[in-house]
Amino acid sequence: MKNLLAKTSNWKFIIPALLCCAYCIYLFQSAQTKMSQIMGEEAIMIDVRSDYTLDEINDFFTKLKPEGRQIHQRAAGVTDMIFPFAYGALFILLSAFFLKKIARPDSNWMYLALFPIVLMLVDFKENFNTLNLLEKFPNLTNEMVDSAARITSLKAMLVNISMGLPLILGMIWLVKWGLKKFTDQ
Predict the structure, then answer these.
(1) Residue 64, exposed/middle/buried by CB under 10 A (0-12, 13-18, 19+)?
(2) Which of 8, 139, 145, 158 has a CA 20 to 30 Å removed from the CA of 58?
(3) Share above pLDDT 90 across residues of the chain, in percent, rounded to a whole number
């Protein structure tokens, strides 16, 4: 696994993952724009929220109307089932790219790059929760919404860690590279 991470953590794999992420974000924004037009106000998709209650979801789904709920369902059931593979690959490859420069490609530290897999799994669970809420509406319960909201909150925390990991590793690599350049002079 370490060798695979070391070999694939290069721009030939990072750029396509980045482009796939950008395309998925474009699709999400398009869906959100259509939902906002239907609602007559800004629509915030469930998985972008940090927390929500039964009343908020009932209000949101009511304002979305059936056509807006269908757009949300398509976004959660198609685009958001692809997106975790795109951003997961991006975060993993970027982290591995910097880890192999900080440590060695055969270092056990390379496994740290795999942390975004946890985020991906939680995101899939959140997608199924969202689809379930859309399917069960208007017969939602506090338990259903509270459970879904906890997963969404967990995902938000994991997004911060997974996005922060390559950023922190990139800064460590820059400091290490700068110190090496400074000491070699």
Answers:
(1) buried
(2) 158
(3) 89
C-alpha 167/C-alpha 173 separation (Å) is 10
The separation between CA 15 and the C-alpha centre of its own chain, rounded to angstroms, equals 17
Q: How many CB atoms lie within 10 A of CB 158?
A: 18
Considering only the C-alpha atoms of the chain, give the largest distance between any 2 of them, rounded to a whole number of Å.
70
Query: What contacts 91, CB < 8 A, 6 or more positions away?
Result: 116, 119, 162, 163, 165, 166
Q: How far apart are the first and last CA of the chain?
A: 37
Residue 6 to residues 92, 165, 168, Cα–Cα distance (Å):
11, 17, 18
Q: How far is C-alpha 158 from the chain's CA centre?
A: 9
Alpha-carbon gap, residue 28 to 43, rounded angstroms: 11
* pLDDT tens digit sequence for 104-146: 889 999 999 999 999 999 999 999 999 999 999 999 999 999 9
Q: Specify the DSSP element, H or E, that contains 49.
A: none
